[in-house]
Design a protein that fits this description.
mainly alpha, 0% strand
Amino acid sequence: MKKYFKISTLVVLAGFLIPLFSALAVNIENPAQGFLADKQGDGSFKALFMVVINSILLPLAGIIAMLFIIIGGYQYITSAGDEELAAKGKKTLSNAVIGLIVVILSYVIVTVVINALKGSV
């Protein structure tokens, strides 16, 4: 139980910190020009970071959340009337959905704040 709590805490912290770090990396020059270049091709570290987040980390978070939703559904369906296993499956399902919502909302909130600040500067 403690193992899952540590892993879920780490996932939640990563969900909050990854967009925060991308927002902080404003105009640092990319040391590897052309590597994972964004659509604008400006070559900044922010652009590189956003490409990594948008094309690697967010899909990975979605895949992990879907995997835990499948695992929780399997645990719930195969509980065969055992209340403890059914509760474990429900808890896994709810934690996976909450984790997915936290990751999506953290990205959306940081993106909205960055765009709002860009518009006022």
